[in-house]
Amino acid sequence: MRHNCRSTHLGRRTGHRMSMLNNLATSLFTHKRITTTHARAKEVQKIAEHLITLAKKGDLAAKRQVFRYIHNRDVAADLFGVIAPQYNESANQAERKSGFTRIIKIGHRVGDAASMVLLELV
C-alpha cells in the first residue's frame, strides 16, 4: 500500500529525481512552455505552483526558499520580477491564488508510447 507517499518515484533515486524536477522547473520558467511526459509534468506542476506562490510574496525568506529549487540567478530574478507580478491583482482581473500552469495532452511518444504533454504557464 502507498499510504502517505506524496510523490511518484519516476524510476529514479531521490537525488536524481529532485535534480530532474528542479531542472524542469527552471526550463519552464525560462521558456514558459516545455514538452515532457504526463507523470513528470504532474510532479513539476506542484513545484512550479509553489515557487510562483513564494515569488508573489517577494520577501527575503521567499527568495531563499526559491533558491533551494532554482539555482540559476537570472531565472530566479525573472521569476520575481516578471512572472510573479503578472499574477497579482490588476485593473481588470482579480488576483490568481493558484492555477498558474496548465497541462495539455499532445499524444504519445513514438519510441515507447509514453503520454506526452505540454506544460505551460497560464
Q: Please, could you describe this protein's structure?
A:
With 122 residues, the chain is an alpha+beta fold. It has one domain (14-90, 97-121): 50s Ribosomal Protein L17, Chain: A (Alpha-Beta Complex), CATH 3.90.1030.10. Helices cover 47% and strands 16% of the residues. It is built from 4 helices and 3 strands. Strands 1-3-2 form a 3-stranded antiparallel sheet. Strand 2 (101-108) and strand 3 form a beta hairpin. The radius of gyration is 15 Å and the shape is globular. The protein starts with 13 loop residues before the first helix and ends with a strand.
Instruction: Give the full name of the CATH homologous superfamily.
Output: Ribosomal protein L17
Beta-strand residue percentage: 15-25%
CATH top level class name: Alpha Beta
Q: How many individual β-strands?
A: 3
Could you give the order of the helices and strands?
HEHHHEE
CATH architecture type: Alpha-Beta Complex
Enter the CATH topology name. 50s Ribosomal Protein L17, Chain: A
- Count the helices. How many? 4
